[in-house]
Specification:
Layout lengths: L5 H13 L4 H41 L1 H12 L9 H29 L2 H22 L8 H24 L8 H4 L2 H23 L5 H25 L5 H22 L5 H26 L10 H33 L10 H18 L3 E8 L2 H8 L1 H17 L6 E4 L4 E7 L3 H17 L2 E3 L2 E3 L3 E7 L7 H17 L5 E2 L2 H11 L1
Parallel strand pairs: 6-7
Antiparallel strand pairs: 1-3, 1-6, 2-3, 4-5
Length: 511
């Protein structure tokens, strides 16, 4: 029957390690947990930076898609191909006027509501484009007869819009206009007068004999391109990250690429049609931002998209998680420090008593042996008196390291006094404990500690106690272990007293 129970006994002996590990292992795991939490936080921060860089590069790639299409048509398409659809162009031109008029009105309504100076100039940009582009649309049926005048109003409208875009950026963040100034007829009448003067002046310039029409058209397109690029640079340098300003930036980039296509394209070529398509795409994107502003806060600088709100929530959650992680790390460190001897790094008396009671309860539950060692360095006061306390501290550190090297992973070493230590030995009877104690004693006896050209040698006296024969609670085991420790000192120090021979003698008498 006893042989049949061997496997069960072994299982019970290993069970404490299967359920939560040993006391020493749990003590070590508590210090590792804080480091793992901190490492997870650093890994998340790195991923956050990498994804941010990816989104930034992705935005640049999307903004440059029109340039890729322009390059493809310029280098890989037959430049002699034409698509002269006069009726289609007239219809799209009139549709552009209707759309730009609507967007101008919505932007104006946003300005009346918020008084944002940026929106005033954005309204003027759309208004300028609409009224300067209007002659271009009206002249579409007569484009073949008046090609120079018909063509000139296109880049002129983009030039007027680009100039207002740049001024709007310069006025971003300025104090809002007072309500009485927003509807002032005089200011809007002046704007209309300037736009009318541009139309009449351009007509006189193109129809006059003094200027080369083609040079005027290319010059206006190049100037419009320069203004748009300047606006992009301003947004980039000022690091403007407002919600709708990202859309504004992308729209200006698309408008700039449309100007590039217009400068190199011939009339009715595929590239010329593509230039119109690119410009329309930019206009639709910017109109989305305006309409979105109208339907929310009616201000460009205070609009938050749902994705942006979610991002803010994620940022707040990340900050909270980081703060909780740091707090957890700090708590773990404080807990570890509260359970650790400040000098040697092993468990202190409080932690030893706590885990010893847990191990003792487990030993009783599964009826497995458990032993305790009480250790005291011999004549350690002499070391401090002769060499000083700093040397004494270094000796304690090396003595502790030597003892740990002679213990098993499941054993728990604690410093409970100046030069006093205790070792908890789970799953160990008195014979196993005596072997471990002797191993420690012999290692310290042979240890030579070299400090500042000095050699310090120490010895240790040990007393052993076992659960059951020496008591059922930790206080009883410590009391018996201390008594045997003093016996070892009385017998000449540098020795181990286990009480095993006394126990055998009592058992023999009983038999």
């Amino acid at each position: 029957m006893k042989k049949g129970m061997v496997w069960w006994s072994r299982l019970l002996r290993n069970r404490p390690l299967m359920h939560g590990g040993s006391a020493a292992q749990r003590f070590v795991d508590s210090s590792k947990h804080g480091a793992q939490t901190e490492a997870r936080g650093q890994s998340y921060a790195l991923t956050h930076r990498l994804t941010g860089a990816y989104l930034y590069l992705l935005g640049i790639l999307v903004a440059l898609v029109p340039l890729m299409a322009i390059g493809y048509l310029q280098f890989f398409q037959d430049s002699t191909l034409r698509f002269e659809a006069q009726g289609l162009y007239e219809a799209t031109s009139l549709l552009a006027i209707v759309l730009s008029t609507f967007v101008t009105y919505v932007t104006w309504r946003c300005y009346l509501s918020s008084g944002e100076v940026f929106l005033r100039w954005l309204t003027l940009a759309f208004l300028g484009f609409t009224l300067v582009y209007l002659p271009h649309a009206l002249l579409s049926p007569f484009s073949n007869d008046m090609m120079g005048l018909f063509t000139a109003y296109g880049p002129a409208s983009r030039l007027a819009m680009g100039a207002c875009f740049l001024v709007a950026l310069e006025r971003l963040g300025a104090p809002a206009d007072p309500p009485e100034a927003r509807r002032c007829p005089a200011s809007w009448a002046i704007a209309l007068g300037i736009i009318l003067a541009i139309n009449l002046g351009l007509a006189a310039l193109v129809l006059g004999p003094l200027m080369d029409v083609e040079s005027v058209i290319v010059g206006m397109e190049a100037l419009a391109l320069a203004l748009l690029v300047a606006g992009i640079i301003v947004i980039t340098l000022r690091c403007i990250r407002l919600s709708l300003m990202i859309i504004y930036l992308l729209s200006m980039a698309i408008f700039a690429q449309a100007s590039v296509a217009f400068m190199i394209a011939e009339h009715w070529s595929h590239l010329w049609w593509l230039a119109h398509g690119i410009f329309i795409a930019g206009f639709l994107l910017l109109s989305y931002g305006v309409v979105h502003a109208f339907r929310t806060t009616r201000s460009f600088s205070t609009v938050y998209r749902q994705a942006e709100v979610m991002q803010q929530l994620r940022d707040q959650q990340t900050q909270t998680q980081e703060a909780l992680g740091k707090l957890e790390v700090a708590n773990t460190r404080l807990t570890h420090q509260a359970a650790t001897d400040w000098l040697t790094g092993v468990a202190n008396r409080r932690q030893f008593m706590k885990q010893a009671k847990e191990e003792l309860a487990r030993a009783k539950r599964y009826d497995i042996p458990l032993s305790l060692l009480c250790l005291d360095l011999d004549h350690f006061k002499v070391v401090n008196d002769v060499h000083g306390h700093q040397v004494g501290d270094q000796v304690l550190k090396q003595v502790t390291a030597t003892m740990e090297n002679n213990l098993r992973p499941q054993d728990l070493l604690a410093r409970v006094g100046g030069e006093e230590f205790q070792v908890l030995l789970p799953d160990s009877d008195i014979q196993q404990a005596s072997k471990i104690a002797e191993r420690i004693r012999a290692s310290l006896h042979e240890l030579e500690i070299r400090l500042h050209d000095k050699v310090v040698k120490v010895t240790v006296s040990l007393g052993c106690a076992q659960r059951g024969q020496d008591g059922e609670d930790i206080d009883s085991l410590i009391r018996i272990g201390d008594r045997r420790l003093y016996e070892a000192k009385a017998l000449g120090r540098n020795r181990v007293v286990t009480g095993a021979s006394i126990w055998i003698q009592v058992d023999t008498q009983g038999v």
